[in-house]
Amino acid sequence: MASSDVARQLDKGARPLSLAGHVGFDSLPDQLVNKSISQGFCFNILCIGETGIGKSTLMDTLFNTNFENFESSHFEPQVKLRAQTYDLQESNVRLRLTVVNTVGFGDQMNKQESYQPVVDYIDKQFETYLQEELKIKRSLHNYHDSRVHACLYFISPSGHSLKSLDLVTMKKLDSKVNIIPVIAKADTISKSELHKFKIKIMSELVSNGVQIYQFPLDDETVAKVNTTMNGHLPFAVVGSTEEVCVGNKMVKARQYPWGVVQVENEHHCDFVKLREMLICVNMEDLREQTHTRHYELYRRCKLEEMGFKDTDPECKPVSLQQTYEVKRQEFLAELQKREDEMRQVFVQRVKEKEAELKEAERQLQGRFEQLKSRHAEEKAALEEKKRLLDNDLTSFGNRKTAAALLQPPGFTVNGKKDKDRKNSGFM
Ligand SMILES: Nc1nc2c(ncn2[C@@H]2O[C@H](COP(=O)(O)OP(=O)(O)OP(=O)(O)O)[C@@H](O)[C@H]2O)c(=O)[nH]1
Ligand SMILES: [Mg+2]
Question: Which stretches does UniProt call biased (Basic and acidic residues) (predicted)?
Fold first, then answer.
């Protein structure tokens, strides 16, 4: 146990005792090893780099196998991610390896959003894990962890400087994943240029505040080698699945008209350093960092977004249960408030509608009264006319009677007319 751990335990009041004989808990590390071996391991690598930069070749070279490789076109409308999972075995250790490749990275005219699908992919894996963790019935022991443990960022061997796409992407990812930058196709750059290029890249990363993964120094057994390797970053790598005869041995190499670049020769490139650091020495640290640093950050932000906190505004610790209760009360109060508001709005609407209906009724009544009075007026006028006509009729009847009385007997209006007609010669 490290001395700092002992000190921490002493602080908490633990009492050191010496054992009189062997009890057997010194087998705990062996128990852990056995358990881990039977469970198997899982490791996920994300390769980010332009189309054709050598991602697949490097993966094949690293794991000494032939993964399924699809050549990407340079005409993808946007960046996509393709994940493939393989079960590998070395001695009695099983490794479930997922290789995620960017497809179409750096091929679009507008590269502003190129990093977004990568960020989304990483977040989605964290989210899936978080959802599993938050389940009542969790099955984390046989859960296929798809969180990205290492991100190999392939830098183009231009010898100049990083592209803005590289800086922007790495900056967006450095709090989410362990970034290990590598200079791809390092056989295409001369030794002196490579040295300068490495220095330039590191200074650009520092000046832009990009945090790349540093091989850990807290474990004494690997602190020395890790310190040396941190000084070699970014690794300049060469990939090849071809074997060339060098001396009397077949080695992985790239053969050119002027010579052979041996992948595993440390004078030729940093491939061995990368393999050593990524697979042999720091694979477990990469997995641990992913869980304790990057996932923890994602989880914290997500839970805070959902309103959970460890302390109240007065910095007193609050439990999840208390936070939940407060949230529940807030929610119920909000619900009640909304209900009251809706009720008020409803009452208001009913009142408005009632007023509208009353107004319409009043208008209708007014119109009815108007029509009624006009009708009465017209009726009175008609009655007056009728009365006058009746009067006329009566007086006419009277006059007719009077006229009939005044006529001499045998005189008729017709007789007069007959006579008149005879006189006028119209017969
Ligand atoms: N000079 C040189 N060529 C390499 C190296 N690694 C790969 N290549 C070549 O580069 C070409 C593309 O390699 P891939 O490994 O398919 O590249 P990729 O990044 O996986 O390509 P996509 O998946 O299509 O984006 C092939 O012709 C490889 O032989 C290297 O280290 N040096
Ligand atoms: Mg590929």
Answer: 415-427
